Amino acid sequence: MNSDKGSPLLETRGLTKIFTSRIGWLSRGVKQVRALDHVDLTINEQETLGVVGESGCGKTTLGRTIMWLTPPTSGQVLFEGQDTATADKEALKKLYHETQMVFQNPYTSFDPRFTVLKCVAEPLKTHTKLRGEALERRVRELLQQVGMPGDIMHRYAHEFSGGQLQRIAIARALATNPKFIVLDEPTSALDVSVQAQIINLLQVLQRELKLTYLFISHDLSVVQHISNRVAVMYLGKVVELNDAKAIFDGRARHPYTQALLSAMPTVAKEFRQQRIILQGNVPNAADPPSGCNFHPRCPVAIPFCSQAEPILDDSVAGHPVACHLVNDRSNQ
Fold first, then answer.
1. What is this structure's pTM?
2. Domain for residue 292, yes or no?
């Protein structure tokens, strides 16, 4: 894990994404799903920000919106201080060159009709002038950089295991020499032993190439291993943000974070926490609860929690937490 922190490389300010769909076949009514709700994050150079939460909390939407694969409804994404929504053509070209994404399922990340050479070479053809032998040489170098032999270039995706394909996907992401990579659950579809290999590879590449990661995962043990800081999301909002060491050393303050941590499997008996069982499921994002979104499932909620929405405040806990009880706002 790289612990060096430089200046901010990427920021989100009030980032919001609302999906709209019609209700029924004949109805003119629409429903709105607030997948992201005013998310403010800062990612420093050469650090890894882990993003965790249950399925449906907005993790993947956050990654896709940052990469502009899903345009935001409102808010800003700033890369090196440049607002990506107002960037001109040249700035956007630079942005696409310096930001990349690795997706969750390696089997759906590749066109089965294309060879490895064609898949990895595509961004090189778009962003560089490499062609012919020079292009093949660069693809071979990229494959070797991620631990794959260069002579696999003329094979197809179905000929590889999931771990091998994910290495190839990482090689493709490195093709443009990016500064920032969104990793959307890059190990969740892999065996445990292969997960460790991919995580170690990502850490080596980060040190060697001075990369910055946004690492999205539901696996807290993986996030603990690779992240410098951790953002905990619930129903489109960030509810806690802190250093990874503090989060996993028992200094998490939000009840939702504590519940997630209590579900982490551990072999050592002395590190096992009393399991906190959350009642019910994540609420419908199209009809969120009043006040704190988490209050219907929170084991320590009080009546005030259903009346007012908590803000992400760091004045009491020493790090940003969105909880009335932690920030002592229930009596104000």
1. 0.92
2. yes
